[in-house]
Amino acid sequence: MSFFENLKMAFSSIAANKMRSLLTMLGIIIGISAVITITTLGTTLRATVKGALDSLGTNLFYVYLTEKNVDNYYDSYDIETTPEDLISMSMLEELIAKYPDEIRIAEENPIGSGTLRNTEKKDVPVNIVGAYDGTLDYNGCKILAGRNITMEDVTRKKYTCVVSHIFVKQYFKNGENPIGHVISINMENGAAYEFTIVGVYRYNTLVNGAGPNGTDEMKTPIYIPNTIALQLQGNYYFDGFWGIPLTFNVKYDANDVKAHIQNFFDEKYASNKNFTIGVNSAMDELKTIDMVINVITIIVSVIAAISLIVGGVGVMNIMLVSVTERTREIGVRKALGAKKRAIKRQFVTEAIIICLIGGIIGILIGLLNGELIGIVANMIIKSEPSYSEILGNVTIQPSFGAIIISLIFSMLTGVFFGLYPASKAAKMNPIDALRYD
User: Fold this and answer.
1) Residue 78's pLDDT band (cuts 50, 70, 90)
2) Under DSSP, is residue 93 helix (H, G, I), strand (E, B) or coil?
3) Taking the CB of residue 177, how many other CB atoms lie within 10 A of it?
4) Exposed e or buried b for every residue in 398-427, given b needs 16+ CB within 10 A?
5) b/e per residue, 291-320, with b = 16+ CB within 10 A?
6) What pLDDT, on a 0 to 100 scale, did the predictor assign at position 6?
7) pTM score, two decimals?
């Protein structure tokens, strides 16, 4: 009997017992749909998290002082540090001079609050933050107009500033161009300082938070060169950093930049008996998150796939019933010269078709579940503007690898659980089968 004749007989048997065949497929459908739903969610979650981190910036490093032979930054320091042990500004300036296009300092130094009076004679509250050329990138703030704080602003102690787009709406009620405008900030201590606006950034509400009463009363940071911030604090000298964030130019490979930073500080601390420098990157964190999501997805998928065993047992059971019901048919075919392998092939094909149909239905249901969950997730995200700004729309991304594996697995389930009933049918004695009532 040809393969196509086996297929025709399999579909005829399934059509003759529609309800029984559907109930038989149910275990396969549930198992496959659960696996597809879980892997789809895992793939989508991984893509969404990566997209969110990308929007915040993954070009980030954190450089920190640590005891030698200690890997964890959070471990307590058993050895007392001296100012010579700390990361000095001269080290950072030398690092940037060595890799001028690669690395930027991202440290920030909040120095307090202030107010300005806008064109409507209303006070606009702001936070004053000392910054470097990488600070805004570190906080996920994108420049919308003008330019960023530069190292020239920092080293030459320029009274420049970068303000948020929210501040622009609060202060410039007549729609003026803020770039080049001089603003006077009244500090909490009563002193007033004038700064020239050189740039406007988009305020990141997910990172920095949102105001309870809308944007009109939000207090957003005004970034000024950190050397000026230190002067306003009365600190004209700097002792050093325990740890400092850095950003890098995304056109360079993250691993290469990390190696440059690590090698630079290894040389600087080679003679230090107690301390060395560790470097963590945002990409390392992303890889860790990705690994955790993958492990959870695999574990839960394996648990869900256990239901396929139950479905397989159901297939075996219904095939045994089918063999019993079709005993006389088997006897007639064997009496007419059908080989054992032809009988076996017929019933295995039927089991495979049942499992394959169940698998396809399960895949479709799993994909539908993913789409429904995506719709709900997008509704939740859109209900919170700060999340919507970073996460955007959640795009469901099915795992095509999981779909292919599920199809293959469903077919293998049919083979495995169909072999015993098929072997039982093939071994029947044709005389006994013909006498069966």
Assistant:
1) low
2) helix
3) 12
4) bbeebbebbbebbbebbebbbbebbebbbe
5) eebeeebeebbeebbebbeebbebbbebbe
6) 64
7) 0.60
